[in-house]
């Protein structure tokens, strides 16, 4: 009976070992699951490239359980509109963030604060109208920034101050009318700038940016690439690239500044063009222009003010002259009439004197005295 007993003992030992092995495998499996980053619901996660793809899911909020180690987070083609400032908190490993084709309108100033390793930020095709100047101050490694197809009407000064590594920037299809050169000066590494499809106003406000663009295009190290900056206003420059507009056409700007410091200016007019012929001066003498204008009417914006002033002066002078003339004519006419009447009276008096007595003569003397007085 020994053999069967030892057999059963062996069987229980085997079962024990099996149980141990299964426990171990189970534990290993659990550990493996825990080691893998959890993937947010219905997103696709690539554990090798650390990419989390949550695009096209109709999301209205950023999934709260995005693994902290994520390097790429794709949230394009969703319905994100207002994001809380902690939407991307703790994602300091994130390098690429794509928020294109959403309905974002305002971004809290600290929303990207933790994204210190961000190199690419896509905000294309949203409804962003304003940006906080500190929005990108914590992502010094940013190399690509796409803000195209939004509603930006201006960029806050200092927006790009913390972005010395930025290589490409797109501002296409916004509502920008002018740009400040100082905003772009910190972008020392910029190579590609897209500014097309904006309602550019090619006037004095854009002159300094034109300078910057010229410097950017011909920069010594690597010539920067820039798409079209086609003017929308003024009418004379519509469709023309700002870089092709000769700098001389903006000479009036400095005169404008001089004029501005002395006297207030009213609404700014369009700059001059070669297309528009120089209007003939209505009153050359009344124009207080120091130098003769060149081929381009450089002071078109300056001229209407002085013309208006000159016309005013002429009208006032004319009115004063007219009044004085009328008074003189009236006085002369009165004098003539009086003189002729007096002469006639004297003649009649001389004729009658022998007939009339002295009293009449006395009376005549009194009359003369009163008239002199
Ligand atoms: C970020 O990390 C800190 C500390 O690790 C933690 O207290 C905080 O809850 C985290 N925030 C989010 C939104 O995960
Ligand atoms: C961010 O980048 C720096 C330098 O490249 C690196 O040392 C650091 O570990 C990165 N941070 C994270 C959280 O990956
Ligand atoms: C912009 O996004 C909207 C909705 O997200 C989409 O319908 C539209 O086609 C997008 N436009 C472009 C030019 O990508
Ligand atoms: C001209 O004056 C206006 C206000 O009177 C001011 O806003 C503007 O910046 C001035 N422009 C220049 C070029 O000095």
Automatic annotation (TrEMBL):
Name of this chain's protein: Leucine rich repeats and transmembrane domains 2
The residues covered by the LRRNT domain are 38-72
Q: Where in the cell is it found?
A: Cell membrane
A Gene Ontology biological process in which this protein takes part is: potassium ion transmembrane transport
Q: Which PROSITE patterns match?
A: LRR
Q: Which UniProt keywords apply?
A: Cell membrane, Disulfide bond, Ion channel, Ion transport, Leucine-rich repeat, Membrane, Repeat, Signal, Transmembrane, Transmembrane helix, Transport
Going by the entry's taxonomy, the superkingdom of the source organism is recorded as Eukaryota
Membrane topology note: Single-pass membrane protein
Gene assigned in the entry: LRTM2
Q: Where is the LRRCT domain?
A: 198-254
First-listed, main subcellular location of the protein, grouped into a coarse class: membrane
PANTHER family documented for this protein? ANTIGEN BSP, PUTATIVE-RELATED (PTHR24369), LEUCINE RICH REPEATS AND TRANSMEMBRANE DOMAINS 2 (PTHR24369:SF175)
- Membrane-spanning ranges: 310-343
Q: Which InterPro entries match?
A: Cys-rich_flank_reg_C, Leu-rich_rpt, Leu-rich_rpt_typical-subtyp, LRR_dom_sf, LRR_TM_domain-containing, LRRNT
Identify the stretch(es) annotated as Disordered: 261-300, 354-373
Can the keyword Cell membrane be found in this entry's annotation?
yes
Q: Which residues form the signal peptide?
A: 1-35
Query: Does this entry carry the keyword Repressor?
Result: no
The UniProt entry's GO CC annotations, sorted and at most eight, read:
plasma membrane
